[in-house]
Amino acid sequence: MALPKEYGGLGFTETRSVSVAQVLQGNNVNLSFRRSFGTVEEAEWTEMSYKLDLVTLGEDNDSVKWAFEKKGNFSTASLYRFLTFPGAVDERLKEMWETKLPLKIKIFLWQLQKNKIPAAERWKVLSKQEVRDDIDLFIQAVRNKIEQRENHLLLLTGGEQS
Description:
The chain is an all-alpha fold. Helices cover about 50% and strands about 0% of the residues. The longest helix has 29 residues, at about 130-155.
């Protein structure tokens, strides 16, 4: 019934199979445990009991709705999307990841933006906006170099693109 103690639970109950309605029948929580609680478990049980007192059961059948999918059905794709993209998009970083830069440079810029590299100590003196502006200027300079190189290649090949 309950999670084992080694997984953060209170331990198994005497009852192997019981419904929520049976446990919450009447005004008391109807569970008995195989072993007695220590001080910590007693406090956890008391806290959980207070929370269970606020629960009211209806006559309808239970249903499960997956909050990360419009239709409410679970899919591994929706779980993956939630785990890999839980928040808002940083447009500057998105633009940086899409540029034609070596991966090493992209990772360096990403770490720099997040102040996660030893060299970032120098950047801590600057405001975040100054760092963002410097990164934007760097990305633009690299883009300009790439465009110049592409234009130069077009001139050398007589305008033929492969």
